[in-house]
Write a structure and sequence with these properties.
By secondary structure, this protein is of the alpha/beta class. The protein is built from 13 helices and ten strands. Bound molecules: guanosine-5'-triphosphate and magnesium ion.
Length: about 400
């Protein structure tokens, strides 16, 4: 045990596969994200392994030669956790654990772990717990054999089916209980939302770590927890914001991510009710992230899953202060000029055309173009407001604010 106290962090190794449709660059970006997730969970990544494979190996996810390589490295370097960039089947997880004799996590397990660490309120905790039990249920058998192996020795022969069944029943009962608890909180929250009256509701949505909470703080001058870690926000915060003389409600909510575990989407549906009930969505994008277009697609897929893709959307491209186009060397005939080489101006043209003007480019940190953003927001909210209350159109003239 003392051994592991030598270093401050847990050491982890990452494993991923590269399928035919994926480029090496794509997988490298995915692994960057997995590394960031690992760091957020509190472990340090020592090494990454990737292998070209059409589909994951049914028994060990990667091939047997590769897994031996990982095994040797894990033994030699005091690695405590190996993390796979995909969901492992319960059988794969058990097999790999048997071979590597350390903690095996998959992407879903890792994200669930971060959510569990981050959950502050009893509502968020209940939602995460529900997702965790749902993830656990099909994996119970593997866990049993694991426990059994750890204890080992006399009197610890394999558990009978009855014990596994008992365990499953306990977990199922727990799931039922948690669902009931959530339903009760949901009813209370629905009542609270109902009491908010006639104000237009605007919701910040977007990939994790794009700056939603920072924008919320700038717009509402409030103090919402913002941090350079994934999933800083799990609970929904709602603030009344006034732009010009027009008040509306602004909500900040949990960030999205590629391959968000289905169990989490399911149990966070109620947190995302705020998105459901919004009149306008602000889709925030971190334009300085090399994969920002892929992020936009992931978010759009989730919005479609939540059936809110047809709501009015204003695209907010944030972090323009940190945007840097890749250098383009005109003399290098091997490289064609592509979107990676776009200047901010070119991105603006592209997205203004794509969204018929519903795009702004800002820096929340450097407060760049926040006035343009406020004006667009005023116009959008005003439109929605006077559609709902035509009489009020005297109150809110078509003006430039600030
Ligand atoms: N360079 C730069 N960094 C920014 C900007 N806006 C936010 N950030 C940083 O980006 C990180 C994430 O910001 P948050 O506001 O926590 O992002 P979020 O979208 O709320 O993240 P989650 O709640 O984790 O989904 C923080 O370190 C911010 O300081 C910006 O305009 N420019
Ligand atoms: Mg946040």
């Amino acid at each position: 045990m003392l051994e592991h106290k030598k270093h401050e962090y847990e050491y982890a190794v990452l494993v991923g596969i590269i399928t035919q449709e994926q480029t090496v660059q794509m997988v490298s970006d995915y692994m960057d994200e997995l590394e960031f997730l690992t760091l957020t969970a509190g472990a340090k990544v020592l090494k990454r392994y990737t292998q070209k494979l059409e589909t994951p190996h049914p028994k060990t996810f990667i091939g047997s030669g590769k897994i031996e390589e990982v095994e040797a490295y894990v033994k030699a370097n005091d690695v405590s956790t190996v993390i796979f960039d995909d969901e492992l089947t319960p059988a794969q997880q058990a097999n790999i654990e048997e071979l590597l004799k350390c903690k095996i996590l998959d992407r879903t397990g890792l994200i669930l772990d971060i959510f569990a660490q981050r959950a502050q309120t009893s509502y968020a905790r209940t939602q995460v717990e529900l997702a965790q039990y749902q993830y656990l249920l099909p994996r119970l058998k593997g866990l049993w054999t694991h426990l059994e192996r750890q204890k080992g020795g006399i009197g610890m022969r394999g558990p009978g089916e009855t014990e596994i069944e008992t365990d499953r029943r306990i977990v199922r009962d727990k799931i039922t209980l948690l669902k009931k608890k959530l339903a009760t909180i949901d009813r209370q929250m629905a009542t609270q939302r109902g009491n908010r009256g006639s104000l237009i509701r605007v919701a910040l949505v977007g990939y994790t770590n794009v700056g939603k909470s920072t924008l919320m703080n700038v717009l509402s001058k409030s103090d919402v927890f913002a941090e350079n870690k994934l999933f800083a926000t799990l609970d929904t915060t709602v603030r009344k914001v006034v732009v010009g003389n027009l008040p509306f409600l602004l909500s900040d909510t949990v960030g999205f991510i590629r391959k968000l575990p289905t169990q989490l989407v399911e149990s966070f549906k109620s947190t995302l009710d705020e998105v459901h009930e919004a009149d306008l969505l602000l889709h925030v994008v971190d334009i300085a992230h090399p994969q920002f277009e892929a992020h936009i697609n992931s978010v759009n897929e989730l919005l479609a899953e939540l059936k809110v893709q047809d709501k009015p959307i204003l695209m907010v491209f944030n972090k323009i202060d940190a945007y840097k186009a890749e250098d383009f060397d005109e003399t290098d005939l091997m490289i064609e000029r592509g979107s990676a080489h776009y200047s901010l101006e070119e991105w603006k043209e592209t997205w203004m055309a794509k969204t018929q003007g519903d795009a702004v480019f800002v820096s929340a940190i450097e407060k760049q173009h926040m006035d343009t953003f406020r004006n667009r927001l005023y116009q959008k909210v005003r439109e929605l407001h006077i559609t709902r209350f035509p009489y009020n159109h005297f109150l809110y003239p078509e003006i430039e604010v600030e």
